[in-house]
From TrEMBL:
This is Uncharacterized protein. It comes from the Bacteria.
């Protein structure tokens, strides 16, 4: 994973999606396995984010060595440039760069239709969560896409708090 995400003319293929869980008031020390402490996020950043969501352990080193901070920094940078938008499609809320919105909607549709078509590094679970909300992954209600830098959620409160954090209107 490169250290810094850049806004491109076209989104890259989605391969890495970090699952986000409902906050429990503290960060799990196991969220990022044996990689960088807190995946490369500072304690201060983890404290702020911990009120909104927790990171689920993904089981692959690609998620542990700075990909999460790179995506968050990218979103913050785009937000400061006022190029971030938010919306909803098929009951899924998203936050992304405006120029990626069509691609983000296509990724969400692909995840809902057949997650395996994207050849993800780790299981996402969006379709299970949307189609069987009482049976699957009740704590996994948000996701951070790391290849292009965008969020999506099924939890409106988490979505709204993330929008407020990144000052997305």
């Amino acid at each position: 994973m490169e250290e810094k995400l850049l806004l491109r003319d076209h989104m890259r293929c989605t391969r890495l999606i970090q699952r986000l869980e409902k906050p429990i008031g503290r960060a799990s020390p196991f969220s990022f396995g044996g990689g960088l402490k807190n995946g490369g996020l500072s304690k201060e950043a983890m404290d702020v984010l911990g009120d909104i969501f927790n990171f689920d352990y993904m089981g692959s080193s690609e998620f542990e060595w700075g990909a999460v901070p790179a995506a968050l920094n990218f979103i913050a940078e785009q937000s400061s440039l006022k190029t971030i938008v938010s919306g909803e499609t098929q009951g899924v809320f998203y936050i992304c760069p405006q120029s990626y919105e069509t691609g983000v909607i296509a990724v969400i549709k692909a995840l809902l239709d057949d997650e395996h078509s994207l050849h993800l590094k780790g299981w996402c679970g969006l379709s299970d969560r949307v189609n069987h909300p009482d049976e699957y992954n009740q704590d996994k209600v948000g996701w951070l896409e790391l290849d292009n830098g965008f969020f999506f959620f099924v939890d409106k409160d988490m979505f709204e708090k993330t929008k407020a954090l990144f000052e997305v209107s």
